[in-house]
Design a protein that fits this description.
The complex is a heterodimer.
Chain A: E1 4-13, E2 16-26, E3 31-36, H1 42-50, E4 60-62, E5 65-66, H2 72-78, E6 80-83, H3 95-101, H4 114-120, H5 122-126, H6 137-149, E7 155-159, H7 167-174, H8 177-182, E8 186-191, H9 194-200, E9 203-208, E10 211-216, H10 223-231
Parallel strand pairs in A: 3-8, 3-9, 6-7, 7-8
Antiparallel strand pairs in A: 1-2, 1-4, 4-5, 9-10
Helix pairs in contact in A: 3-6
Chain B: H1 2-31, H2 38-56, H3 60-86, H4 92-113, E1 129-132, E2 135-138, H5 139-161, H6 163-173, H7 175-180, H8 185-210, H9 218-232, H10 237-257, H11 262-276
Antiparallel strand pairs in B: 1-2
Helix pairs in contact in B: 1-5, 1-8, 1-9, 1-10, 2-3, 2-4, 2-8, 2-9, 3-8, 5-6, 5-8, 6-8, 9-10, 9-11, 10-11
Classes of the chains: A alpha/beta, B mainly alpha.
C-alpha cells in the first residue's frame, strides 16, 4: 500500500480550478518528482497535501488515514513536513531557532537532530546565531530543508527548492539528497529544473494545466515525451 | 533638587504606564490585534481584586495572586471564543469587537459596582516611603516600577528563551508557515492573550492601590498604554517600558511647571516622539 496517495484530487481558487483529479502514489522510501511549467498546479498539489488548502478528506490519504481536510499543523504532526516555495524562513528567528521550529510539535526519535542537520549542512553551524534572513539564498534553502528534517518526517515535501538559486548552489543542495533518502524518508520534489528532478527521483510525474500528463521512471521517459507533456503536444 | 525629584517620580509613574502598556504590546506584537478593551480589562481586574479583598479578607497582593489564574483563563477564553473568530487580513472586525467589548465591560461594571469610585486598600503601604538623601520615594510607586521591570524581563525571557516564545515570534512573522511547522495559531494566540491578562492583573493591582477607579476609568488608561507602545516602537517590550517612562516623566515635569499641564504634557511628549521618530524609538527591523 502506498504511504501517501491522492485520489481524484481537485482544487479551486474561487472560480478558478487549479487541479482536475490528480491521482498519485508515493511508496515508503520512494522519491517522486513532479515537474511542470508555471501554473501547472504543482504548488497547489503540495499545498493540498500539506493542508494549507483544505480538500475533502478522502482526496489525500496518508498511512491509511484520510487527511485531506486536516489542519496543516496536524498533518505536520502526523509526519508530513514541507519545505515551502520561497524558503519562508522566520525573519525574527535565528538560524538555530528556525531549525528548532521544525520539532516544535512533532518530537519523535529519529535520525535528525540539530547535530545531524549541522552535519548535513556544516555552514549552518557557523551561522547558527545569525538571523535566518542574513544568509544567502542557498544557505536559507538549507535552513528550510533542515527545519523540515528536524521533525523526522516520514514524507518530505520540497516545493521548488532550486527556484532563484545559482546552478552550482542547486548542485550543492541536491548533493544532500542521497543522505536524506538513506534515512528512509519518502520525498516529493516539485521542480521546474527537469534535469535535477530526473537525477534524484525514482518516478517522475509531469503536470500540465492541473492534470498529470505523463508518469514513468526517469530512464524510460524520452526527452520528446517530456517536452510534449510539459508544453502540450503539437497537434 | 526639585527637578531630580520630579524626574524620579516621573520614572516611577512611568512604571505604571508601562504595566498598562505591556499587555497591549504583547498582543499587538504577536497577532496585530489592537485590543480597545485593554483599559477596561485592567479596571475589570481591579474590581476582581477588590472583590477578593473585601469578600475573602485577603491582602491586596494575595488577592492579586488569586486573580492571576482567573484572569489568565478569562483571556484564554476571550481569545478562543471571540477574538480568534474575527482575526484575519481585515483589521476592522477585531477593532469593532474589542470596542464593543469595552462598552459591554464598562456597563456591566456600572451595573455590578455602581459609579462610585473605589480603591483597593493597601494599609500602611499606601503612605510608606523610603528617604533617599533629600528625596523620598513612595514604596508603592517603587514597587510599581520594579514590577514593570520584572514583567518586562519575564516577558523577554518567555519570548527569547522558551519554545512558546519561539512559536509566538514565528506565528507573528508568518502564521501559515508556522502552521506548517506544527504550530496551531489559534492556540498560540489564546496563550498570548492569557499571558497579557496576567500582566493586566499586575497593572490592576497598582492602579487600584495607588488611585481611585470607577467603571469609566479604562479608556484613559488605554490611551496612556497606546502612547507608550507607539513611543517604544510596535512590538518592542523594552521600547514599551521606555515609552511608559517617557510619558510618566513628561507628566510630572509638566505638572511641576503648571499643575494643569500634567495630562497635556504626556500627550505632547507622545506627539513630539511621533514627529521625530514616526516608527517609535525601537521599531522592529521589518514588518
Amino acid at each position: 500500500m502506498a504511504l501517501l496517495e491522492t485520489r481524484g484530487l481537485t482544487a479551486h481558487y474561487g472560480d478558478f480550478q487549479a487541479l482536475f483529479g490528480v491521482d498519485l502514489d508515493l511508496a515508503e522510501g520512494e522519491t517522486m518528482a513532479v515537474i511542470g511549467a508555471n501554473g501547472a498546479g504543482k504548488t497547489t498539489l503540495m499545498r493540498s497535501i500539506a493542508g494549507v488548502l483544505a480538500q475533502s478528506p478522502d482526496m489525500v490519504r496518508f498511512d491509511g488515514r484520510a487527511i485531506g481536510a486536516m489542519a496543516p499543523d496536524d498533518i505536520m504532526a502526523a509526519g508530513i513536513a514541507m519545505v515551502p516555495e520561497g524558503r519562508k524562513l522566520f525573519p525574527s528567528l535565528s538560524v538555530e531557532e528556525n531549525l528548532l521550529m521544525g520539532c516544535h510539535r512533532r518530537k519523535v526519535a529519529g535520525p535528525w537532530s540539530l547535530e545531524t542537520v549541522y552535519g548535513l549542512f556544516p555552514i549552518l553551524k557557523e551561522r547558527r546565531h545569525q538571523p535566518g534572513t542574513a544568509l544567502s539564498g542557498g544557505q536559507q534553502q538549507m535552513v528550510s530543508i533542515g527545519r523540515a528534517l528536524m521533525s523526522n518526517p516520514r514524507v518530505l515535501l520540497c516545493d521548488e527548492i532550486s527556484l532563484g538559486l545559482a546552478p552550482v548552489v542547486i548542485k550543492d543542495i541536491y548533493a544532500a539528497f542521497p543522505q536524506i533518502r538513506e534515512t528512509g524518508a519518502s520525498i516529493v520534489v516539485v521542480e521546474q529544473d527537469i534535469g535535477q528532478a530526473m537525477k534524484v527521483a525514482d518516478r517522475v510525474h509531469c503536470m500540465m494545466e492541473g492534470r498529470v500528463t505523463l508518469s514513468g521512471k526517469p530512464g524510460e521517459l524520452s526527452r520528446e515525451a517530456i517536452h510534449d507533456a510539459y508544453f502540450g503536444a503539437a497537434a | 533638587m526639585i527637578w531630580v525629584d520630579t524626574v524620579l517620580q516621573g520614572v516611577l509613574l512611568g512604571g505604571l504606564y508601562a504595566l498598562f502598556a505591556l499587555g497591549l504590546s504583547l498582543v499587538f506584537g504577536i497577532m496585530r490585534l489592537v485590543n480597545l478593551a485593554h483599559g477596561d480589562l485592567i479596571v475589570f481586574a481591579a474590581y476582581l481584586i477588590l472583590l477578593l479583598v473585601t469578600l475573602l479578607g485577603l491582602g491586596p497582593f494575595m488577592a492579586a495572586i488569586v486573580a492571576l489564574p482567573i484572569m489568565f483563563a478569562l483571556g484564554w477564553a476571550l481569545q478562543r471564543v471571540v477574538l480568534n473568530r474575527v482575526l484575519g487580513t481585515d483589521i476592522l472586525p477585531p477593532l469593532l469587537v474589542t470596542f464593543g467589548l469595552s462598552v459591554v465591560l464598562q456597563n456591566a461594571l456600572l451595573e455590578g459596582f455602581s459609579a462610585d469610585s473605589r480603591r483597593i486598600p493597601a494599609g500602611w503601604l499606601e503612605t510608606a516611603s523610603l528617604p533617599i538623601g533629600p528625596i523620598s520615594l513612595g514604596v508603592m510607586p517603587l514597587l510599581t516600577f520594579l514590577s514593570a521591570i520584572a514583567v518586562t524581563l519575564a516577558l523577554q525571557w518567555v519570548f527569547y528563551r522558551t519554545s512558546l516564545g519561539r512559536a509566538f515570534r514565528a506565528t507573528s512573522d508568518d502564521p501559515v508557515t508556522a502552521s506548517l511547522m506544527g504550530v496551531k495559531p489559534a492556540s498560540v494566540f489564546a496563550k498570548a492573550t492569557g499571558i497579557a491578562m496576567i500582566v493586566v492583573t499586575i497593572a490592576a493591582l497598582y492602579l487600584g492601590t495607588r488611585a481611585n477607579f470607577d467603571p469609566t476609568t479604562g479608556p484613559a488608561r488605554l490611551i496612556y498604554a497606546f502612547e507608550a507602545v507607539i513611543i517604544g516602537g510596535l512590538g518592542s517590550l523594552w521600547g514599551t517600558l521606555a515609552g511608559g517612562i517617557i510619558i510618566g516623566v513628561a507628566q510630572t515635569v509638566g505638572a511641576q511647571i503648571n499643575p494643569e499641564w500634567q495630562i497635556l504634557a504626556g500627550h505632547v511628549a507622545f506627539l513630539v516622539v511621533l514627529l521625530i521618530r514616526p516608527r517609535g524609538l525601537f521599531p522592529r527591523a521589518f514588518d
